[in-house]
Amino acid sequence: MSNVTLNEPEITPELAREHGLTDEEYGWVLEKLGRVPTYVELGIYSVMWSEHCSYKNSIAELKKLPRDGEALLVGAGEENAGLVDIGDGMAVAFKIESHNHPSAVEPYQGAATGVGGIQRDIFTMGARPIASLNSLRFGSLDNPRVRYLFDGVVRGIGDYGNSFGVPTVGGEVYFDPSYEGNPLVNAMSVGIVEVGKTASAIAIGVGNPVYIVGSATGRDGIHGATFASEEISEASEAKRPSVQVGDPFTEKLLLEASLEVINSGAVVGIQDMGAAGLTCSSCEMSEKGESGMIIHVDRVPIREEGMTPYEIMLSESQERMLIVCEKGKEDILEAIFEKWDLHAVEIGEVTDDGRVKVLWHGDLVADVPAEHLALGGGAPVYIRETKRPTYLDQTGAFDESLVPDLAVTDVRSVFETLLASPNIASKRWVFEQYDTMVRTNTVVGPGPSDAAVIRLKDSNKGLAVKTDCNGRYVYLNPRKGGQIAVSEAARNVVCAGGKPVAITNCLNFGNPYKPEVYWVFKEAVGGMGDACRSLNTPVTGGNVSFYNENPESAVFPTPTIGMLGVVDDVENHTTTFPFKNSGDIIVELRPAGFPGGGIEASEYLSTVLGRTEGDAPRFDMSEELAVQEACLRLITNGVVQSAHDVSDGGLLIALAEMSLASDNLGAQIDLAPVASGRMDGLLFSEAQSRIVLSISPERLSRAQELVASMPVEMVRIGVVADGQFTVKVAGTTVLDIAPEAMNDIYENALPNRMSNKLK
Amino acid sequence: MSVRFGVIVFPGSNCDHDAYHVAKHVFGQEARFIWHKEAELGDVDFVIVPGGFSYGDYLRSGAIARFSPIMKDVVRFANSGGLVMGICNGFQILCESGLLPGALMRNESLRFVCKNVHLKTESLDSPFTQGLTSGEVLRVPVAHGEGNYFASDDILDQLEDQGRVAFRYCNENGQVTKESNPNGASRNIAGILNEGRNVLGMMPHPERCAEAILGRPDGARIFTSIVDALSVGA
User: Fold this and answer.
1) CA pseudo-torsion sign A655, A656, A662, A668
2) Fold of A68-198+426-569
3) How does residue A570 score in pLDDT terms, banded at 50, 70 and 90?
4) Do A391 and A552 meet the contact criterion of CB atoms below 8 Å apart?
5) Residues of B with a known catalytic role
């Protein structure tokens, strides 16, 4: 190794520790290299072996998830995103990823670059992004800091996606004090590509030139991956420079240029530069190709004077790609990037010695074995210690019979409290800041449906997509909560008229070195696996985000599910939840013999009674499958006017939302046929596997026939009506409210909470 | 004979495909993309300057786009009577390039807004609107951060006196109200015509609602009007 005068620090075990490597890990580096690493090499190991890049504490558990399916064109983790064959020669590339830590200290840029990063994962595969979704978690809006974070994140997502030109078609936002100080920002992208026209993140062909394309490299985001791999603390504010800065216009150029160059046949392999930038892309492409690479790091276009090889290798500047070009086709590649006014600079070549060699003005500054660095290769894999958390004893001791039932006279005020709860209230304030329609494929956007529906031009098919996770359920029963997260996302897709086909996931948990956190993680992943196997929706990939901790404890364990469904006949099967016509019959579709549900883990118990307790709600996998199958059968046979799953806030809120989203239609609800004893459970239980449908009267008997042989029941609970929204229980009217009055509460809740900060 | 649509493509255009799709596939006309670095439009009957973020619009929407090579020819085409429609960012670019008066400022809310709005048809005296009915209410989406139309009172008076306000924001019953104005635009103006009535700029996106599968296809009314006007002329 040459002596380059770069004024670099002396490499010591302390410095390795400061880089986030454990003593044991540093020992493995010494052993493998047979010498003390250079400063650049230490930086490379530090980011590649960070939790964020290596998945060292999660990969063993992730491998237990079902990751095969005949429709999967690439396996989980093999490429930058999952790829699913949806027929008609088309494939969908999709993935969800977190940007939690950056968003906690710099919400606008953190969220914006989260959106940008996930788009690159899609178009680096040759797929054109056609829809974005997100999943957000914040603390209480009573806290001005939380309002600042929420506002910044929404603006960041909006400004990036709106300019980039991909519609943000769906998402979810939850608020709970557990996310105080550590918000979750998960971004998902969905792209479409012709089967056989995808690109791969691989470096092969000795002598093929390696290009860096897109933006110039700056000092932003250095050690971003390492930052993401530790807990947020008081000191985190100092990590603001670790947050990258996004430029959606350049991303748009990079998208068009990348798709054009992939289509030109000049590309052997291509990978975006996200976490750990040039380091990660060069190592992973080399590892995948079982090749190697020489990088002349001094040739990288930089945007700041005096950058060192260490900084350039570790920069997480956005909107960049690494491309292996087929030798002889350099002119084609360079012309395309010239057209789009982007850099395309040859910085190295593919070799076959399995090593990534970094040169600085001809001097070797790093020489590392690619395989040793990469996930799936020599990167560390840990099985962490687990311990069942003791809080589960307390929360599990919840006894519903000790909670006084809801009095008839209190129904109205409780209903209004829930409607105004930020978790239930209209999210219009959020989604109207996103361009939800650009590219004119959005058949159903945010608001009136359990899942978004995107048409595919030149096809009868559409996609139904949804992000979902109730972290409170996972907190109270990690395994069941994991099962529910997947099942509810699937149910949402079914309610929109789609057949669930595969998932991507973003696993947001606390510090994996805490045995309690790891036990919850393992259980939740196990639960997800159970549900994915039952629903036949394999896991195509995703991302793990550990170290999500507020000052007191871990955030609610939140394995966000991104569900992909296919709508076979988008024109006729697409279903939304607003009531359609006065006189339509309202039914509850549910498991046969459903005994009624309790209030454990419910929004009611949490928001109204201030208790996060009990088991996760009632759930049975086989019941869930039956209900989903029945619902899809009803929809595809054309007998359903509207469908909405019973989730947060229970049956009463589901019914109210169907009225609220309609053209000012009310309903006359009579819950006598489904009454089960307690009023609170009847109205607000979040027992799973239930869907409210509205069906026109002349199709009701046909609907009953269609599900007669299935282990489900369809119970009539009311009729859509002009005028008031009324609910009767046991002959007594417990609620009688004008749709306009509901609307005022529902629509104004979030804007009112947010305008606090402006006063 | 079909109408030949030309859709200008700036590097940051993102509604170019949508305009192209409506012209070509929904209305079955001829359509082609015209790259911003080109110097001439070539043979076209109708130019669409589409929505998007032409050059990133970090400076001011449309401020850089007006200097791109193709805009010279768009101005020439418009000044010789050619039909030009600027949608959203396209409207901003037409204002910046002097084909239309006034400017589009940041929305009054200082937030991006994307939603369906209602438009009252104010002028039928143009190829873009001749097929509509007076006062016809269209439901069309907006999606912009800078759609707050501004001009001096003199210019606003002149636009009104000459019947050059094409569309105003209104409620679903056609009443022009403050609540129905999504961005604070002066006098609820959503779209205006030039003096020759051959250039239209509008913030709402008719190309986003020209097919039944995407909701009420009111935007198709404007495209029908355009195609009919040009077909009769030919």
Assistant:
1) positive
2) 60s Ribosomal Protein L30; Chain: A; (3.30.1330)
3) very high
4) no
5) 88, 205, 207
Query: Which of the residues A52, A101, A372, A573 is marked catalytic?
Result: A52
A–B CB contacts, 8 A cutoff, strictly below: 85
Q: Alpha helices of A580-644 — where are they, by DSSP H?
A: 603, 621-636
Third-level CATH fold of A1-66+202-381? Phosphoribosyl-aminoimidazole Synthetase; Chain A, domain 2 (3.90.650)
Nearest chain A alpha carbon to B144: A435
The pLDDT of residue A157 is above 90: yes
Q: State the pTM of this model.
A: 0.95
Assess B228–A contact: CB distance below 8 Å, yes or no.
no
HEC profile of A648-710:
CCHHHHHHHHHHHCCCCEEEEEECHHHCCCCHHHHHHCCCCCCEEEEECHHHHHHHHHHHCCC
Could you give the CA distance from residue A704 to residue A698 in angstroms, rounded to a whole number? 11
* Chain B: closest CA distance from residue A236 (Å): 29
The residue that leads in pLDDT, A110 or A238, is A110
List Cα–Cα distances, B109 to A375, A433, A743, in angstroms.
46, 11, 22
CATH number, residue B83: 3.40.50.880
Residue A326: both structure tokens together: 């087929």
Residue in this structure with the two tokens 């929305």, named with its chain if needed: B107
Q: H or E element: which one contains A486?
A: helix A478-495
Candidate from B37, B205, B214 with C-beta closest to A443: B214
Name which of B112, B179, B183, B216 to mutate to probe chain A: the one with the most chain A Cβ atoms within 10 A of its Cβ. Answer: B112
Work out the minimum CA distance from B159 to partner chain A, whole angstroms. 30
Which is it for the CA torsion A97, A100, A106, A107, positive or negative? positive
Domain total in chain B: 1
Of B111, B205, B213, the CB nearest to A571: B213
Residues A541, A76: contact at Cβ < 8 Å? yes
A720 near A586, Cβ under 8 Å? yes
- The complex's ipTM? 0.96
Chain A residues touching residue B11 (CB < 8 angstroms): 249, 252-253, 256, 340-341
Pick the residue from chain A with its C-alpha nearest to B17: A439
Query: What average pLDDT does range B117-146 have in this prediction?
Result: 97
The CA–CA distances, whole Å, from A115 to A182, A206, A455, A541, A553 equal 18, 34, 22, 17, 27
| Cα pseudo-dihedral A424, A427, A429, A435, rounded to 10 | 170
Interface of B with A in 149-188 (CB under 8 A): none
Residue-range definition of the domain harbouring residue B124: 4-233
Burial class (CB in 10 A: 0-12, 13-18, 19+), B43: exposed
pLDDT at A638 over 80: yes
pLDDT at A502 over 80: yes
Q: How far apart are CA A297 and CA A6, in angstroms?
A: 14
Q: Which residues of A touch B (CB under 8 A)?
A: 155, 158-159, 162-165, 247-250, 252-253, 256, 339-341, 431-440, 442-443, 455, 457, 570-571
DSSP-based three-state secondary structure for A343? strand
Q: Which residues of A touch B55 (CB under 8 A)?
A: 249
Report the percentage of chain A scoring pLDDT > 70: 97
Chain B environment of A433 (Cβ under 8 Å): 111-114
Query: Rounded distance, CA A334 to CA A260, Å?
Result: 12
Return the CATH superfamily for domain A577-759: PurM-like C-terminal domain (3.90.650.10)
Q: In whole angstroms, what separates CA A443 from the centre of its chain?
A: 21
Longest Cα separation, chain B: 45
Residue A363 in this model has a pLDDT that exceeds 90: yes
Cβ–Cβ below 8 Å for B57 and A163: yes
